[in-house]
Amino acid sequence: MHLSVVIPVYNSERTISPLVDRLQACLAEKTFEIVLVNDGSPDLSEAVCEELADTYTNVQFVSLRRNFGEFNAVLCGLNYSRGRFVAIIDDDFQNPPEAILTLLQTAETGDFDVVYSRYEQKQHHWFRNWGSRLVNTLTTYSLGKPRDLYLSSFKLIRREVVNEIIRYRGPYPYIDGLIFRVTRNVGSVVVPHNARSEGRSNYTVRKLVSLFLNVFIGYSLWPIRLFTVIGATLFGLGLLSGLVCVISWLLLDFAITSWAIVVWAILTGLGIQLLFLGVLGEYLGKLFMAHSGLPPYVVKLEKPQTKLMSSR
């Protein structure tokens, strides 16, 4: 098995079938499989995917019990994949299926563990572009990724890296974070980016905040170290300002009103306490959930492929 194509499916009853048909055509010279993971779609995506698995012998389909999120669905697909290389592509046709061959060629000729796609001009909504820039800036510091590397959802991963990624058993997978825990041997290549042919993006404010917190809290210790430095700095400034006030009062007869000191102390102290409690609460919450036995996904339906497609 040379190539696996993992597709997280959500509300894609109109696009997933044409996408699979185009993959069958453009990858016909490769020995490949397609892994469809329905992430609790409320439309008819599950029925369409099940029909595709019955039609094509190299398509396997997994349907999750409810909506767990894109990264959880991708992690599920990686667990079911078997190719030497695994491509991850969205179900909305914004990434042309033919570009998988470009990613594959770049990985093979450049000997990269992971190849990300990048775009000359993105066709996303401005809100999603803004959210992507925010998350990419955050990951530059939290994951140590190169500044010029765009962490797109359309990428190709070598099997050895996939085997390490699927060892993750927590409920909060972040695929790019898991990748950078394994390797820094990553490349990128320019591919086309199209406007959505159907529907609208599922990238909401809630999902952006959830992703931001997941990256911010779950995959690095630098946030708590940052707040530790801030706390130490504020404490030092408090000592210094108190010392200045005392010296000014003793030597310069400088009048300081007591109510101003009390208000400043209460607001500053309470703000710092709440800030630290919030950060510690996020860490403790993630730790609790990770050790509570919650799985990253729950399989509702599984249709394994019956026979591998041979290369022509």
Concise structural overview:
With 312 residues, the protein is an alpha/beta fold.
Attribute tags:
312 residues, alpha/beta, Spore Coat Polysaccharide Biosynthesis Protein SpsA, Chain A, 2 domains, 8-stranded mixed sheet, 14% strand, elongated, transferase
Structure commentary:
- The mean pLDDT is 81.
- An eight-stranded mixed sheet has the order 7-5-6-4-1-2-3-8, sandwiched between helices.
- The chain has 312 residues and is of the alpha/beta class.
- It has helices spanning 16-26, 45-55, 70-80, 99-110, 126-142, 159-165, 175-182, 205-218, 222-251, 258-290; strands spanning 3-9, 32-38, 59-64, 85-88, 114-118, 155-158, 186-190, 299-303.
Question: How is the secondary structure organized here?
Answer:
Layout: E1 3-9, H1 16-26, E2 32-38, H2 45-55, E3 59-64, H3 70-80, E4 85-88, H4 99-110, E5 114-118, H5 126-142, E6 155-158, H6 159-165, H7 175-182, E7 186-190, H8 205-218, H9 222-251, H10 258-290, E8 299-303
Parallel strand pairs: 1-2, 1-4, 2-3, 5-7
Antiparallel strand pairs: 3-8, 4-6, 5-6
Helix pairs in contact: 5-8, 6-7, 9-10
Domain Glycosyltransferase 2-like: 4-165
Keywords: Cell membrane, Glycosyltransferase, Lipopolysaccharide biosynthesis, Membrane, Transferase, Transmembrane, Transmembrane helix
Pfam families: Glycos_transf_2
